[in-house]
Design a protein that fits this description.
mainly alpha; about 60 residues; 3 helices; single chain
Amino acid sequence: MTDLFLEGRDPATIDRLASLAPLERLGTTADMASVVSFLAGAEGRWINGQVVRVNGGAI
């Protein structure tokens, strides 16, 4: 059911939503993966108890 709903979305609506974000695009799985990799790696060892929004600046 969800797949059918997503496939039926109007590309113009998706483009409009993407243009509202400061980076003017929708996030990708690679965008999410890089944040997860950072948090799970050695560089993220002092980050705890935080909410990290991976949304490209969209509120």
